[in-house]
């Protein structure tokens, strides 16, 4: 799976795989991370709308991508096992890639949108690995999975609080 922003957490994915084998990562954690990705991207989209940086066509693309991501995140939360969550995580990745493609056409992204996108690109391969999907071979890691998880959780909390 090709990503426009090739920031992939290969080390993070290996860490999460080891944690899954030892039972340290629960399905609830995977669902929380999927929800934080979806809500973090919703926050990024709100920031883009507030900055009036999206064309009408880009708004449609972003809204479609967000719908895909939200539906996939909700489905991950309903999954009864990591294996059962595989197709939903694949759908989540598809929506993330569509959103990144729509935003890649914007010359300058306002803060904290680049940070959110970087965090999503770190956490997505971690989630893919956690449900048994092959993690893409990666480039240098921009941040640790723990930092990415923190950024997304903070952005999600702020978005839910209306900030």
Please describe what this structure looks like.
- This protein has 163 residues and is mainly α.
- It has one domain.
- It is 71% helix and 0% strand.
- It has six helices and no strands.
- Helix 1 packs across helix 5, helix 2 packs parallel to helix 4 and helix 4 packs antiparallel against helix 5.
- The longest helix has 24 residues.
- The chain is globular.
- The chain starts with 9 loop residues before the first helix and ends with a helix.
- The relative contact order is 0.23.
- The N terminus is likely disordered.
SSE layout and pairing:
Elements: H1 10-22, H2 27-50, H3 56-78, H4 82-103, H5 113-130, H6 145-160
N- to C-terminal distance = 33 Å
Number of domains: 1
Q: Name the helicity range.
A: over 70%
**Rounded mean pLDDT score:** 84
Q: Work out the strand percent.
A: under 5%
As residue ranges, the low-confidence spans are 1-24
- Shape summary: globular
Radius of gyration (CA) equals 15 Å
What pattern of helices and strands is seen along the backbone? HHHHHH
Main sheet makeup = none
């Amino acid at each position: 799976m090709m990503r426009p922003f090739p920031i992939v957490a290969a080390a993070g994915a290996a860490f999460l795989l080891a944690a899954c084998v030892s039972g340290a990562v629960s399905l609830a954690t995977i669902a929380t991370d999927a929800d934080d990705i979806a809500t973090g991207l919703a926050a990024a989209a709100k920031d883009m709308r507030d900055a009036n940086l999206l064309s009408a066509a880009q708004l449609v693309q972003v809204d479609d991508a967000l719908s895909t991501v939200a539906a996939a995140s909700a489905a991950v939360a309903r999954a009864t096992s990591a294996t059962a969550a595989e197709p939903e995580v694949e759908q989540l990745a598809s929506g993330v890639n569509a959103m990144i493609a729509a935003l890649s056409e914007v010359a300058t992204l306002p803060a904290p949108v680049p940070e959110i996108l970087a965090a999503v690109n770190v956490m997505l391969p971690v989630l893919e690995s956690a449900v048994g999907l092959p993690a893409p071979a990666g480039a240098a890691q921009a941040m640790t999975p723990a930092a990415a998880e923190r950024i997304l959780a903070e952005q999600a909390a702020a978005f839910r609080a209306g900030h």
